Amino acid sequence: FWILPFAGALLITSFFVPGGAANSGWTSYPPLSVIATTGQTWWLLGMVALITSSLLGSVNIIVTIVQLRAKGLSFFRMPFLVWAQFVTSFLLLLAFPPLEAAGILQLMDRVAGTSFFLPSGLVVSGMPMANAGGGSPLLWQHLFWFLAHPEVYVLILPAVGIVTEIIVNNTRKPLYGYKTIVYAVLFLGFMSFIVWAHHMFITGMGVTMSNFFQVTTMIISIPSVVILTVLILTLWGASIRFTLPMHFALAFLPMFALGGLTGLPLGLAGSDIYLHDTYYVIGHFHYVVAPGTLFALFAGIYYWYPKASGRMMSRFWGKMHFWLSFLAINGVFFPMLIQGIAGLNRRLADPTFYANGAAIQNLNVLISISAWTLGAAQFIFILNFFLSLKYGKKAGDNPWQATTLEWATPTPPPHGNFLKEPIVYRGPYEYSVPGQSQDFLPQNVEAAKA
After folding, report:
1. Paired strand residues for 249
2. Where are the domains of the chain?
3. pLDDT band of 450, cuts 50, 70, 90
4. How many CB atoms lie within 10 A of CB 350?
5. 394: phi then psi, degrees, rounded to nearest 5
6. What pLDDT, on a 0 to 100 scale, did the predictor assign at position 32?
7. Rounded to an integer, what distance in angstroms lies between the CA atom of residue 118 and that of residue 134?
8. CA-atom Rg of the chain in angstroms
9. What does the alpha-carbon distance between residue 146 and residue 98 come to, in Å, rounded to a whole number?
10. Per-residue pLDDT averaged across 62-90, rounded?
11. Could you say which DSSP state residue 124 is in?
């Protein structure tokens, strides 16, 4: 944890050095990043520190899950959210070290005169670079995207875990295919390490390598489909409770599906050549990590807020926050898909300079209005969050009538969470169990004798 503020301080420092903050984009592609101003050096230092923090946090989570489970809590009795976080931690642990090494190598290129990423014959502003020679900018791309694609699942897997917990609780049914969805996530984590070069089809890679990464990209869509199918089948035929968290969880499903479907053309070299670096890529990516991750985050806050605070958040203002956010976030990202199909490139100072950009400028206006609306809607959430701490309806220990262990603690939880170590008797989703007096059976409660 304490490395995080240090990393943040390094990143903020870059704004106050000569030349300003890092100015080579979020991907930090060389050779631009190697010849950029001093702020780039501070950005790299901050990134290396941030990665170190993430690696230590991942080790902590993995060790906690492996070594500190409650008595009776076998791996296949863990909630799916814990499985999602478990796989996420392994993704961070395995994918971040190559990028950390790449960041250190880029620092060496900037300050030590090396040439890991600088090609021979590099000329900048009419002057040959003295330390350029023998390096490869594509090496950075390989190291960067080896992390950056698993990073997508680092964001989305915990979100899927949160949504799963909420959907199961509000359908009052066991999760359809618990082991199936666990195996799907494990396979997804493995496959995420062998798809990175689909971001690099236009770099001139050979047909053999291109075909390999096209195939792996199509394969990695299968576990995502399995996850969505499991959640939809859990909803099928259920007596759904439309609680506030459930609104956000249900909205997550179609937006995540749209994000996944729009990614398929980008995984095929033929269509990617046209769509690469257009607004279509922005729309696709953010339909996965913005509506998906943000809506899952809000769902989780509304769901676990009563446990953390002892109060319920306002349902009226929560629904207002939901509908404004849902409409606005789709107004931001769906038009980008249309713009990308129309051939509008990203990173243009003035899209109207080009005929295709001028023809769809009205969509940029819609995106801007939607973005401002989306930002304004979050003030409703912020006010609801803080006012509910004092004025919210008091919540009991288990206001959602859930089954997992966190609801077995007092509200708010004491230091160490549990007054005594719980014993787990069953899986995490025992809802509507025949012969029981209520429609849920917590993991830590022995079943009533028939």
Report:
1. none
2. 242-395, 401-449
3. very low
4. 9
5. -65, 140
6. 82
7. 7
8. 24
9. 8
10. 94
11. E
**For tokens 């070069």, what's the residue?**
197
Q: What does the alpha-carbon distance between residue 154 and residue 149 come to, in Å, rounded to a whole number?
A: 9
Q: pLDDT over 70 for what percent of the chain?
A: 99
Note the pLDDT of residue 114.
84
Residue 287: both structure tokens together: 């339909």
Cα gap 196→91, rounded to integer Å: 13
Cα gap 178→430, rounded to integer Å: 12
| Residue (of 389, 406, 418) closest to 443 by Cα position | 406
The span from the CA of 65 to the CA of 223, in Å, is 23
Closest Cα to residue 312, out of 265, 379, 243?
A: 243
What pLDDT is recorded for position 311?
Answer: 94
pLDDT of residue 449: 52
Would you mind telling me the total number of residues written for the chain in this entry? 450
**Can you spell out the DSSP letters for 238-303?**
------HHHHHHHHHHHHHHHHHHHHTGGGSHHHHHHHTTBHHHHHHHHHIIIIIHHHHHHHHHHH
Mean pLDDT across 307-325? 95
Are 70 and 420 in contact by the 8 Å Cβ rule? The answer is no
CA pair distance 290, 238, nearest whole angstrom: 28
Cis peptide, bond prior to residue 413, ω within 30 of zero? no
Which pair of tokens denotes residue 229?
């199918």
Task: Write b or e for each residue in 94-108: b if 16 or more Cβ atoms lie within 10 A of its Cβ, otherwise e.
Answer: bbbeebbebbebbbe
Beta bridge mates, 423: 71
Residue with tokens 């003295």: 130
Question: For residue 376, what pLDDT band results from cuts at 50, 70 and 90?
Answer: very high
Q: Which residue has the tokens 């899927």?
A: 160
Least confident of 217-221, 252-256, 331-335, 416-420: 416-420
CB–CB of 86/62 below 8 Å?
A: yes
HSE-up (13 A, CA, CB side) for residue 423: 4
List phi, psi (to 5°) of 157: -65, -45
Tokens of 232: 């939809």
